[in-house]
Structure formats: C-alpha cells, structure tokens
Amino acid sequence: MEKRALLAVILSLLVLVLWQKFYITPRQEAWKRQQRIQQEMVKPSPVPESSSQQETASALSQQAMQSQVISQPARPEAQEVLVESKLMKVLFTTEGARIKSWQILGHKNSKGNPVELISELSRKVNRYPLEVLTGDTSLNKELNFGLFTASKPALQLTEANKVDSIEFTYKNENGVSFTKKLTFYQDNYQVDVELTLHSPREMGALFLTWGPGLGNLLDDQTTHSDQVVSSVRGQLLKQPVDKLKGIVQAENVNWAAIDRKYFAAALLPASSINTVAVELLPSDTEEKKAISVDHVILKVGQTGFEGVKYRIYAGPKEHDKLSALKVGLEQLIDYGYYLGWLVKGMVLFMHVVYTYTHSYGLAIISLTVLVKLIFYPLTYVSFKSMKSMQSLQPKVLEIREKYRKDPKVMNQKLMELYKKEGVNPMGGCLPMLLQIPVFFALYQALLVSIELRGASFLWIPDLSAPEPYAIKILVLLMGVSMFIQQAMTPTTGDPKQAQMFKFMPIIFTAMFWNFPSGLVLYWLVNNVLSIGQQYLINRGDATGKKAVSDKKRKVNKG
Fold first, then answer.
1. Residues 6+ apart with CB under 8 A from 442
2. Under DSSP, is residue 486 helix (H, G, I), strand (E, B) or coil?
3. In three state form, how does the secondary structure of 147-165 look?
C-alpha cells in the first residue's frame, strides 16, 4: 500500500514536469519565432441573432467586417498629452486622440521598468488603441490620423482630485465634428469613454478598438494561453489567440477582453445591442497560421453616434479591481475548475498575511504552517501507524515467506494480522495523499496570482518563477531536507521499498528544478516542519518507553 501511494505522488508530480516540458517549452520556442507583422484584415463570421434585433445587429456586423484604415506615418505637428494617476501613466497623441503608452506603475516588466500595455508593434505599424471605425473609410482616416485639440495640456489625478476628464475634439471643413471624452480615476484602472460624432452623412454604428496586442516585454506568455474572452449573456466565450480566425458576436455582449496571464484589456459597451469583432494582423513569416497576441485588434461597436459610451479596463488582473466593475470581469482569473475554491482560499489567505508582513515569502511560509496544523492529527496517526508497521515486520515477513506461493491466502493472513494488531496499512501514506490537492492548488495559485508576480524573498527575485541561477540553492535545500526527513522516518523493512525511498530525494530534487520558487519554498518548509514533528514524536515515544522501563525496574526491585 505504501509503495502504491508513493508511486501516486511521484506520478502526480511527473504530470507537472511533463506539462512544463511539452506545453511551456514549445510555447517559448514559438514566442521566439515571432517576427514583423503586416497589416491585413481577416473577416469574421457573424453568429445567429434574434429576429427582433437582426437589422441593427446586421449593420454592426457588416461594418465590423469592413477593412480598417491604412496606417500612415505620424505627423511632426502632433502633440502629446500625459495623464497621470497613482496607478498608471497614459500618454496620448493628438493625432487621432490615440494611446501611445499605457504604463502600469505598480508592476515591472522583464527589464525592471513599469509594465507597458501598448505593444511594440503599435509603433511599427502606427496602429494604437482608441482608434474608431465608422462606415466610411475616408472618414476613418480623418478620425484616426487627423489632429485633435485637447481640452487640457496634461491631466494629473491626486487625492484631492480623484476623478477628472479630458476631451479631444476634431473638426473638418465638411461639417464633421468628433469628440472623445475620457474620464480617469485616481484609484482604478478603469477609464470611461464617451464618443460623439456629428456628420452630414447618416451612418449606423461606431466602433472603438484596442490593439494591436497587449503589453510589451512581458514574460508571461509562455505559461498561459493568450485569448480573446467575451461575456455573452453571462456566459464566457473563450477564443485562444493561436486558433483565432476572426469572430463577430452580436446582441447582449457584456464585455470583451484581450486576456493574458497577468494583464487584460477589456472594452465594456454601455448598450446591449453591440458587436464584438477581432481583426487579425497576419505575420509576414512562412508560418501564416502562427498567430500571437500581437496580431489581435479587438473592436466593439454600438449603434448611434450621439454619446456612445464605453468603459475600458486595462491593467493587472487583480481580483478586487476586476470585481469592483460588477460585470464578472474577475472571471478572467483562471483559478481552475475542480480546485478553484481552494486556490481562491489560498490566494486570499496569502493576501491577508501580506498586508501585515509585506512579504509573500512569509505568506507562503504561514500558509505551509497552517496546512501542517490542519493535517497534524493525521500526521501523528500516520507516524504511529508506520512505527506499528515497523514493529510488525518480522511477523509480516514470516507470513510472506510461508504463503509466498499463494498470494490470496498471504493477503488474507496479512489483513488478519493488521486487524488483530489494530494497524492500518494505509495510515502511513494517507496524509501525503490528502496533501496532493493542496500542492496542486498552490501550484495554480502561483501561476495565476498577479500578486505573486515579481514578489521577491531573500535571494529569490520572483516567487512565481524558478530560481534564475545555475545552482538553485532553494531546490538543493529542499533535497537535503528530504534526506534528513527520510533518515528519521520509520521503515517498514521491505528492501524494495527502502531502495525506492533512498532515491526519492534525488527524484524530487530533479522534479522541482524548474518549478516556481514559491512551490519549492512551500515543500521545503513543509519538510522542515515534518522533521520537527518527527523529532518531537520520536522524543515523546522514547520518553514514554523509558518511563515504562523505569516503572518495571521499580516493580521488580520492590
């Protein structure tokens, strides 16, 4: 039984190793092959709609499939307008009133600078978020490359000025006027957008865009399937980026987002009569089907031109910030299906500890101690069961030798022996098996929690990633702790099982070599606590035996 349970643990960990090797590594290689992107529209296909809204939605879908404006070089007379808040810096260009930079101040990229949510590709092809689309191609060029007038040269949010707006206005000689009004918040990544277009021509819908892509110098795309996610009547529709062929969703779309591992950009239309479309910019490489998140431009359209309203969320996938929007945007955080409740609980516990300690390393240690306390009764029973099994080994070996030619009778006699002595052969491995879900839940928590991204502890720069050193000290310490724990653990006397245990520290060290540092820290602390538990139990057991022995001597002398 012990051997089977141990094998189950090894196989569970092996699944994680193979997942990293055959899923993450190919994604890393694909990411390195990304090259320059060319602009081209991939036409999406409309989904069926209700008859009552078919005419309106048809106009939206038809416009969504129209070609986008042609990229043009930035003009020297365009001005830049900076918006600053406690959480971000947003840089606009008056050419089209578009976003040239969207920096998240509280999170760093791979070079240690604030995370940039505008892709490098935007600069190359002169396509930026907040472009607009109408049914008129020539008007699109004017609205996206014409010079706007800003109501303020800059905008700075403060504690005394927590909510403020800025307007960008465009007018031409043909009587067209267009206004983008943006409202920013000091303590949130949300931006409210109101679009107003007056034109002599009659048009049916107005589209707002985000893209191409989301983020620059992010190192998270290799462990997460970037996707376009939409909430349709409360249900999530997920489209992996590498499988996108273009989509159109009309009617009752609550929001649509470009979703990455730790960051997201979502467009939330005010009207339920809307269309979500995806424009794909194909690569100029030979691998025409290799689509990355940099190829994606998200477009959300609504009918009308007078006061068309949107909300934008572009920032980290922090649960409290996403849930504050009250539209289900927190569902972008993938806690997992079966163990989601446990992952959420772990993240919440670590966040609470962090508010007091300001260290996610200490939060993981605290979580390990909590788990150890919860499982202590089972651990104690497990240790006593292993000690009992060790004392029964002579009788077990005798039965195995006597009935070695009749396995059925041998197992029957062994069960009778265990029952007579009150020993549970599974008692020694039960705590280990019960902790496997905890292990997997923590693994998922480390992968999806933005709070742990870049969280340092001692010499470890990022608890959500493996140690970035040739010699990984934390992993080696974990292996050493397993050797010590193994030496203190009672053996059953089975030579094959003893041989297997002998190589366990080496096997686990190899498995954990490329695991997130936070997970290694959890296992190391768990081992250290187990060593302490076993020492105390051994000491108590030895003290008890000594007391009994001393009592017998006194009785004999008396």
1. 346, 364, 367, 518, 519, 522
2. helix
3. ECEECCCEEECCCCCCEEE
> Do the beta carbons of residue 519 and residue 464 sit within 8 Å?
no
Full strand arrangement of the beta sheet holding 190-198:
149-150, 163-171, 177-185, 190-198, 308-316, 263-269, 253-259, 227-232, 235-240
Cα 258 from Cα 297, distance rounded (Å): 9
pLDDT at 215: 83
Q: Which helix (H) or strand (E) holds 384?
A: helix 360-391
The pLDDT of residue 412: 79
Written as one letter, the residue type at 237 is: L
β-sheet bridge partners, residue 229: 238, 257
- Helix pair 495-511, 2-19: axis angle to 10 deg: 20
Question: Rounded CA gap, 472 and 477, in Å?
Answer: 9
Q: Which residues sit opposite 283 in a β-bridge? A: 37
d(CA 346, CA 371): 10
What are the pLDDT digits (tens) for 45-80?
A: 343 344 444 455 455 655 655 545 555 555 558 899
Q: Quote the pLDDT of residue 443.
A: 79
* The pLDDT of residue 221: 46
Q: Which two tokens stand for residue 551?
A: 């009592």
Distances 147 to 82, 98, 223 between C-alpha atoms, Å: 16, 11, 41
Minimum mean pLDDT among 49-58, 133-142, 415-424, 496-505: which range? 49-58
| Residue 224 tokens, joined | 């997460």
Question: How far apart (Å, rounded) are the C-alpha atoms in residues 313 and 117?
Answer: 11
Question: What stretches of 65-174 show up as alpha helix (H) in DSSP?
Answer: 120-125, 137-145
Most confident of the following: 28-42, 176-190, 249-263, 498-512: 176-190
The answer to whether 443 and 516 have CB atoms below 8 angstroms apart is: yes
